[in-house]
Amino acid sequence: MPQGFFSPARVRAARQAARVTAASLIGFYTALYALDQPVVAVYALFTPIALGVLSPVPGSGRQRARTVLLVLPVAVALTALGTTLAVTTASAVAGMLVIGFTVSFAAAYGPAPAGVVPGLLLFYVLACFPPYAPQTLPERLYGLLAGGVLLIVCERVLLPAPSSPPYRARIASALDLAAEAALSVAQGHGDDRERARHLRDEGRALRFSQVPPASRPTGAGRTARGLAHAGSATRRVLDQLARTFEKPAPQPGDDPHCATLLREVAAACAATADALRGTRAVPGQEMLEEEVADFVAVRGRPSEDRAEASPRLLRHRTDVLTVAASALTVQTAVTVAIGGRRSSPGMPHDQFWYAEPSTPRLLTLRLTGNLTLRSVLFQNAVRTALGLGAARLVAGTLDLSHGFWVLLAVLTLGRTTAGATWSTVRSAAVGTLLGALAAGVLLFGAGSATVVYAVVLVPAMFVAFAVGPIAGPAWAQGLFTLVVSAAFSQLTPATWRLAEVRLLDVLTGCTIGLLCGVLAWPAGARAELRRSAAELLRAVSRLVALTTADLVDAPDEARGDATEEALRLARHRLRIAEGAYAQYRTEGGRGPGGGGPDWLAALNCGSHAMAGAHWLPRLDHGPAPPDAVRWARESVARLTTALDRAAAFPPGGVHVRTPPLPTEVISKAPPPVRPSLVDIDGWLRNLAADLTTVGGGDADEPPPPVRDDGRDTRRTQSRSRDLR
Question: Which candidate, 487, 497, 518, 481, places its Cα nearest to that of 405?
């Protein structure tokens, strides 16, 4: 037996096939043969298929059962609406357009709603076809509810899917590592590349691409947003600690204030990890806030000790403060996510804007934020609605006897790119042809012997649902053709021409789906990701320029308002780009290091820019001297120019080197201003490093090492490698 025969994916598919087959056939056979209710039998058969196979509901058996229970009322409403609107083709098509868009657009709410979209659409599709029979609505609903209840029971008791570790457990594990690393830095350990690599690897494990769909906090509610925010900030903590370990180790006595703050960071990370595991109450962030405030005050005090003013110590303090700020963000996000905190004196509105609005308000914001042609969720909803509406129009106009198969083909075979749609429908057409031939042989040989179809349906359904999701659309459509032929032959007498009808309907649906794929956003997320990432980089360019001007120039109320607006725009652009990137990866798009632009690095650049735009103004110590202002303007001009150039994603990327902060500028600046200059320098350098990797490097590559005199050592290191 091949080594990969019992791969996890095949085992999962077989277990799900067993659950769906049991739920479908128990309801189907009971209604058809024991109760003599064919309408009830049809809906009892298709409900588990819709919510168990067609809808890839994520999660464990308990989570899937809960999702099915929650969507049953929606399925009932869609079935009733489809039954009512089936009175004419025009009303059915109009309903298909509205319902197709509305239900598909609900995918914006998170993975669970996105998973049930195809299944919910099937309930309207199945009910909106002739004959117009509103008197059968009770039987339809009985069958639907029976099939739904049977699926819930099977999900819970028949080979239930195991649960995956929740995302909060991943954050807790990462925070434990961060606490250990912070204590190590406080004790003077550093210059450890292996440890830095381990920290970055742990941070990568928090990416949503590395997390099962059921565990991803992508919902619109406060808890999901808080956990997603905490995960992103935890990644920053680990990355910043990794960069600290890549520099020469500071001596424990160099700066006791840094050691004290790092110990408080370690304690906060450990306490937050315990809260995420549920072993202690959610900690308040007051102690870490007070320690950060004390540290900021110490940085700004004049000192006659030359060591206190050394660029090396100032940069180390900036690194430590950056770690503390990110740790404070994690702690605050967790208090919002699992502590239920709506507001607190230390909770900045621009970072935790989602803490105060009600859940309905947050859901509304998620929808309205995606009501734009630039949103891939909006594009997918429009594409689905148009495809299903066109299929319903064709099926109604041509009076196809099994017209819902046309819509089912559009629903199951449509993809988000024209190329993927063509590949899928080509395979599906071949599979349907072979399945129709097999079904024709079965129908011709068995004739009116329904017992043969009843016996064949059991293994055919299990094999179809176990093999189809793994082997591809050809196998899925071919085997499903055999399934529906065996099922419908038990409802009414059928001949081999039923297989012919099935083939023609599927080919019609394939043609409609292919046309929609070609005409409606044929490039899928690839083109939209390039566009949205470019808009994000341009928004970041303006945000960086305004934030830096706020920090080094005299206060300006108009500029402050412009900065707030730039921050809101950048946040919106980031959300749109993140949605495009998520779909891009589902389409088989390349991840970091896969060649071409590194889209994740562009998203990281936007996230890091917004984090700096939030924290740096809170650490400002007054206007900078003229020399420092000139340096800041030159640095920002170079970086913003590079950001605007990078938005075009030229081949080879964009390489930018911001002017180093000269030592003499630091020494001439008033003591309270020196730390803020070093903070700005570190922020701009990190953004430049992110920007350099957008061209196709590693999104987690550390920034170039910085000497005490502020010079970039990358060129020197490159020459050394060339000599070797």
Answer: 481
Q: Are residues 453 and 446 in contact, defined by beta-carbon separation less than 8 angstroms?
A: yes
Nearest to 14, CA basis, from 45, 68, 53? 53
Q: Do residues 419 and 426 touch, judged by C-beta distance below 8 A?
A: no
Which residue blocks in 88-136 are alpha helix, DSSP H?
89-105, 111-127
Phi, psi of 697 (to 5 degrees): -90, -160
Instruction: Specify the 3-state DSSP secondary structure of 712.
Output: strand
**Residue of 287, 296, 255, 288 lying closest to 620 (CA atoms):** 296
> Is omega for the bond preceding 131 within 30 degrees of 0, making it cis?
yes
The whole-angstrom separation of Cα 701 and Cα 713 is 15
pLDDT-derived band at 715 (thresholds 50, 70, 90) equals: very low
> Rounded CA gap, 584 and 34, in Å?
49
Which residues are registered as beta bridge partners of 712?
706
Q: Minimal CA–CA distance to 385: which of 149, 95, 50?
A: 95
Give the chain's end-to-end CA distance (angstroms, integer).
50
| 150 neighbors 27 (Cβ within 8 angstroms) | yes
Residue with tokens 């730039």: 566
CA distance 124 to 93: 11
Task: Report how far Cα 321 is from the mean position of its chain's Cα atoms.
Answer: 30
Q: Model-level pTM?
A: 0.82
- Give pLDDT tens digits for 500-544: 777 888 888 888 888 887 777 777 788 888 999 999 999 999 999
* Beta bridge partner(s), residue 7: none
In whole angstroms, how far apart are CA 519 and each of 18, 372, 383, 422, 614? 39, 18, 9, 13, 42
DSSP 566-585: HHHHHHHHHHHHHHHHHHHH
Instruction: Give me 500's structure tokens.
Output: 């012919």
Widest Cα–Cα separation across the chain? 102
